Amino acid sequence: MSSSSAPAGASRSAGRLSRRSKGAGPQPYDFRRPTKLSREHARTLQMTYETFARQYTTLLTSSLRAISQVSLVSIEQLSYDEYIAQIGNPTLLTMVTLDPLPGITLFELPLDMALACIDHLLGGPGGPQPQRQLSEIETVLFRGMLDRVLGEFRYSFDAVKKIEPKAGAIEYNPQFAQAAAPSDPMVVVSLEVKVGSQECIATMCLPFAAVMLALQKVDEALALTPAERAAKETALRNVTGGLLGAKLPVVVRFGVTQMYPEQIVALEPGDVVSLGHPVNRPLTVSTNGITLAHAVPGNHGARLACLVVDPPREDARR
Question: d(Cα 295, Cα 228) in Å, to the nearest integer?
Fold first, then answer.
């Protein structure tokens, strides 16, 4: 885990990837931006993205029918401006939402790798590709593949928090991807992607606040002792049982009828008021103003009652 950033415009081409070994020496430390991810949090993210890398590898190999490999390179804490400065231009940058986590996540894949993947997907040999934007058909193919990748990410992230990733807009110029303020802290994950003879560095940039929100939930779950966890589950069952056993006022209503004030004032015992409720339409059963069922009037012994029936069809309401 390092809080340092690569120099702007650093080479990210194939064969020039600098990977840290376990015996790496001292790393620069910026005292103006102290690292906020603890060792435990970094380890949790590392295990999550190692799982994602394995799933991503299987997906690429089976989909592209080419020898593929995805591995985790680093997890860094950078500002959004630093992240934008270190990725290539042009590149393929997809905005992703991770509901219910706040903010926008960026998934970045170099254009030549995206085109090589599409070429393999269509039965081609892959290899070096021209530096150009995707066509409409290629964009549809890329989005289909990206949806499957995000499905694997959802599975990998499930140990931290249940999320629903959804791909949004695609940008080719990082300066146009206004996903956060320049000084906002981000968690940047770098992945080495190899497909056939091609290799590159893909990145995923997540809002730091969203990551911490998910990791804090994991901390709360791990911090509980077995006795505390059992007490919490017992309290949940008691609350649920109490709510299910609570009594609520239930009202059965006819349709609304409008009357003039003078008609209401002139009402006397024995008068008949015509209700604006069709004969073939059931009554509404509601509580606290919320309709929960439909019923027809009847009786149960000497008491008035109603029989719950299926809701009316749309054509029967007209």
Answer: 46
Helices 39-64 + 136-157 axis angle, to 10: 140
What is Dmax (Cα atoms) for the chain? 97
| Cα-based torsion angle of the residue sequence 69, 70, 71, 74 in order, rounded to the nearest 10 degrees | 150
**Mean pLDDT, residues 4-25:** 42
**How far apart, in whole angstroms, are the C-alpha atoms of residue 209 and residue 187?**
9
Higher-pLDDT residue of 19 and 250 is 250
pTM (2 d.p.) = 0.60
Asked if 66 and 126 touch (Cβ cutoff 8 Å), the reply is yes
Q: Is 53 exposed, middle or buried (0-12, 13-18, 19+ CB in 10 A)?
A: buried
Query: C-alpha angle 133/138/143, rounded to 5°?
Result: 105
Which tokens belong to 273? 């008021």
Do the strands 105-109 and 68-79 form a parallel or antiparallel pair, or are they unpaired?
A: unpaired
Nearest to 86 by CA among 28, 11, 30, 16: 11
Summarised one tens digit per residue, pLDDT across range 55-86 is 999 999 999 989 999 999 999 888 899 999 99
Alpha carbon distance 78, 1 (integer Å): 11
CB atoms < 10 A from the CB of 141, how many?
17
Question: Which pair of structure tokens corresponds to residue 284?
Answer: 């509404």
Are the C-beta atoms of residues 1 and 35 closer than 8 Å to each other?
A: yes
Q: What is the pLDDT of residues 111-167, one digit of tens each?
A: 999 999 999 999 888 888 888 899 999 999 999 999 999 999 999 998 888 899 999
Measured from the Cβ of residue 19, the count of other Cβ atoms closer than 10 Å reads 11
